[in-house]
Amino acid sequence: MKGPLSYLQPGRNTKVSDQSETMSFIPGQPVTAVVQRIEIRKLRQGEHLILGFSIGGGIDQDPGQNPFSEDKSDKGIYVTRVTPEGPAEVAGLMMGDKVMQVNGWDMTMVTHDQARKRLTKKNEDVVRLLVTRKSLEQAVKHSMM
Amino acid sequence: MDNESQYSGYSYKSSHSRNSRKHRDRRDRHRSKSRDGSSRGDKSVTIHAPGEPLLDTESTRGDDRDDNWGETTTVQTGTSEHSVSNEDLTRVSKELEESSPLECRRFLGPGLGAVLGLFALVTPLAFLALPQLLWREALEPCGTPCEGLYVSLAFKLLVLLISTWALFLRPPRATLPRFYVFRCLLLALVFLFVASYWLFYGVRVLEPRERDYRGIVGYAASLVDALLFIQYLALVLLEVRHLQPAFCLKVVRTTDGASRFYNVGHLSIQRAAVWVLDQYYSDFPVYNPALLNLPKSILSKKSSGFKVYTLGEENNTNNSTGQSRAMIAAAARRRDNSHNEYYYEEAEMERRVRKRKARLLVAVEEAFTHIKRLQDDEPAASSPKHPREVMDPREAAQAIFAPMARAMQKYLRTTRQQPYHSMESIINHLQFCITHNMTPKAFLERYLSPGPTLQYQRENTMGRQWTLVSEEPVTSALSKGLVFSLRRLDFSLVVTVTPLPFLHLGEEFIDPKSHKFVMRLQSETSV
């Protein structure tokens, strides 16, 4: 099940609902977001392990050019493209998602290259991402009302 | 227009008497420091020459003037325009006897300095001349070395003379309450110096009738050298030391809060006070007492509101404190809306001023179009049908003053500047502007914004009386956190001293080749 509101089914798509807060980042304060846990199994293509999506962003990049971010000073890692029928799409990743964590490693304050490296480690078969998107927050609000 | 001029004429005449009374009051108050204020009760009136400003600009009570002008037009006690009463005579004599010590005091210090300086300058010549006069035959002749010394002596004396004239022979502009320490020090030094030289001269040369003339000339030359060095010291102490800024003075006027900041060097308090006053006269806008207070209509509403009735109580003393306390408590609890009214009153006032200003501008512009300057090559009378009479600036000014007079007067009344500008002064200014080809806007700049106090001063040899109020002795140097104030009759200037911060200036070298730029990154990686 891919819906964000699947509390009752533990599994890949359980949502970790933290406090609902906007995605903007206040320096010095802990970041709170409504996230979805996505587990992607890497696909072997030739000698590469691919995940099937593209990332953009990073603290060394220009945040103003990011079409997916709400706050144009947000330097997080965003999913810019999802290849159809790839492992990412199967797992439920959508274009425009912001990647918060990869296998427990933080992705909100990393350079573009560090993010790429975290995602493409050769000895890992599975990556567990925490991603957030605006529709998650709205869904939580609706469900609470 | 006829009515206008008559009306203004009355107010001028009344204010003449008011003006003179103010002058007299001020002198009385000043006098009463030394005597016992016995002359304060005079109520006689003097008539000053017309053309003076309506009020002395520095000690005015604008509110009084508006209320009482009607009374003073009718009452003139004991004098007519052409007679001088007994009271006038006694008062004039008192003034004379009192003003002369002031005038003399002003020139006492510099006079002493001048005498001493002259004495010091004449001394080397005397040193040279006395042996020649007294025992000429016995002197050894001295040839070339003496002549060299003569020439150098002459030039040094010339330099001393010129520099003394340039530096020190200036009319003093202020009398200070205490002695000017550096100047006294220098005068004492010069006196000691010259006296000791004379002493040695008397003992070593005059007594034994010294015959070595070259030595005497050398002695005189050394005196002149020493005088030059003393003058160098004087230059440094009196003129140069206070040029480099060390303190920042904040000057605030107590009545309306106008403030300025100035940078000064190391000065004593009294010298700093004189310096501040120099700047005050040209920097601060003129003090206008009419602009100070909130309109009474706003403030008076606070007090009204509650009336306290006593119901059959006969013992009033117990009640009064209870009453006042109750009123104060009630007034505190009531919501205060006077700020609202103040805001609207301000807006209304501003609107009124702008309207009058617009009318004034239009009137003046139009008035200026009525005249034009006659070029030299134009014939004066262009045609017999329209003869143009040639006017000098004064007549031209009077001719075009008429259409703008009403607008001008209304504007001055609205901005409460009418004490500072009499009709005579406006016409004079108009004449001045016409002579110098000024535009209407240039003519009006004097009236549209309050100028510095100096603009409204009249030629007055009596000088301005200021009192320096300070907790430290006034000859001590400026230091951090010092506060002193300069008091005049109805306002004062409070001066606070803060030292200028010490600056740590660092250096950073930027290689011109190090200015490089790149485009910002936006990469997308597929994983």
From TrEMBL, chain A:
PANTHER family: DISCS LARGE, PDZ DOMAIN-CONTAINING PROTEIN
UniProt subcellular location: Cell membrane; Cytoplasm; Nucleus
Domain of life: Eukaryota
UniProtKB keywords: Acetylation, Cell membrane, Cytoplasm, Membrane, Nucleus, Phosphoprotein, Wnt signaling pathway
Example GO molecular function: protein kinase binding
Membrane-related topology note: Peripheral membrane protein
PROSITE patterns: PDZ
Organism encoding this protein: Hucho hucho
Amino acid composition bias (Polar residues), ranges on this chain: 11-20
The protein, known as: Tax1-binding protein 3
GO biological process: cell-cell adhesion; establishment or maintenance of epithelial cell apical/basal polarity; neurotransmitter receptor transport postsynaptic membrane to endosome; neurotransmitter receptor transport, endosome to postsynaptic membrane; receptor clustering; regulation of signal transduction; Wnt signaling pathway
InterPro entries, A to Z: PDZ (IPR001478), PDZ_sf (IPR036034), Synaptic_Scaffolding_LAP-MAGUK (IPR050614)
PDZ domain: residues covered: 37-134
Region annotation (Disordered) ranges: 1-20
Transmembrane segments: none
GO CC annotation terms, alphabetical: adherens junction; basolateral plasma membrane; cytoplasm; nucleus; postsynaptic density; postsynaptic membrane
TrEMBL record, chain B:
Keyword Cytoplasm set for record: no
InterPro entries referenced in this protein's UniProt entry, alphabetically: VANGL
Keyword Transferase in annotation: no
Membrane topology term: Multi-pass membrane protein
Region (Disordered): 1-92
Primary location group: membrane
Domain of life: Eukaryota
GO cellular component terms, A-Z: plasma membrane
Compositionally biased tracts (Basic residues): 15-33
Positions with biased composition (Polar residues): 70-83
Transmembrane intervals: 107-129, 149-168, 180-201, 216-238
Localisation: Cell membrane
Keywords linked to the UniProt accession: Cell membrane, Membrane, Transmembrane, Transmembrane helix
Record field: compositional bias (Basic and acidic residues): 34-45, 58-68
Sequence similarity: Belongs to the Vang family.
PANTHER family found in the cross-reference section: VANG-LIKE PROTEIN (PTHR20886)
Record-given protein name: Vang-like protein
Organism: Hucho hucho
